[in-house]
Amino acid sequence: MSTAPSRIYLARLVGLPVFDPLGDQVAKVRDFVVALRSESSQPRVLGMVAEVFGRRRIFVPMTRVTSIDSGQVHTTGLLNMRRFEQRSTETLVVGQMLDRQVTVKSTGVQGTVYDVAMEQARNRDWVLSRVAVQEPSKGFRRRGQTHIAEWNDVTGLARREASQGATHLIAALNEMRPADAANVIHDLPPERRTAVVAALDDERLADVLEELPEEDQVEILEHLDSERAADVLEEMSPDDAADLIADLHPETAATLLGLMEPEEAEDVRRLMSYEEMTAGAMMTPEPVILSPDATIADALARVRNPELTPALAALVYVCRQPLETPTGRLLGAAHIQRLLREPPSTLVAAAVDDSLDPLRPDATIDEVAAHLATYNLVAAPVVDDEGRLLGAVTVDDLLDHMLPENWRDQAVRGLAKRGRR
């Protein structure tokens, strides 16, 4: 393998794209697998865990890696698309080694691992050669002093810890998109996952929960104390929270709803009242809602919110008071493209598309799909019999409910077939 640096720090590679010989991106780096034999011998780096299309994690042997630089990884292009399964003799660098408590023998320094480096040995194998250690913070210093030590000068790396921290793994997860972080957490050993969940703040945990499979969501939520579980549910989008609460034991669900803020709980209860796989059950009750006297500038300021998905930011809804769902009568919706063509001082009411037909909350999933496809929409309003806005259904809401549970595996099999041609 040709590579620019002779020593490579592995935590820095997480998230880098993986390219085939033709220059096409085929995966992303998620972790590295090592054979941790003892603290005296340098562990051999067996390969990397890469995430391919469909969020499937596969194993890429180091013999398939042709080069690594600061921005990308190149492979031979011959990848085994079988899902990665960790063996008992293997250790994940990011998932299991970061945050281990270690001691530097030559200096007596104690701290936690925040990175490890690999180098190529004389026999061309890649081995772990350096350990980056951070001391605990002292006094008013925000971060403790850092040290780089030789692998054989560090003790504690081969010892499994029941109470291993998660500070540096959390730092790596916070650099990822929620869907990518969820995939890492899904594959962590149970004790490591518990430590990570405990260390994540409520908002980040909510983002990650929304991307996890239902069984993982339920398992994680049931291991939280009730107060924190309710706080996390409040941070989730109401439609995702409603889906999750519906999977819980009725007594647990009732307890958590009682602990949530009344307004947040009311939104969730309302969504749970609709029949499954209908517009009412799929919609979000928090689209961008404006009064008729709002200006184009007001509308554009609202859709700039980075927490809005592209589909939710594509339409703003103009309604009579009150502006919380269920609102006053819906007057119409304004498309973002139209807003961008109008003077900022113009009233948003002048830009509404009043010909846009709304959906009813009992509309079936097929009716919702046909409606969005017919009118080339990425979102549509949902109203009650009195014309009050209840929420909006987006195309991503629709896809979440229309795709089969195993769609990712099917997509990966298709990718694997194309890769063997």
TrEMBL record:
GO terms for molecular function: magnesium ion transmembrane transporter activity. PROSITE patterns: CBS. Residues 352-410 form the CBS domain. InterPro entries: CBS_dom, CBS_dom_sf, Mg_transptr_MgtE_intracell_dom, MgtE_N_sf, MgtE_transporter, SH3_actinomycetes. The keyword Cytoplasm does not apply. It comes from the Bacteria. GO terms for cellular component: membrane. Keywords: CBS domain. PANTHER family: MAGNESIUM TRANSPORTER MGTE (PTHR43773:SF1). This is Magnesium transporter.
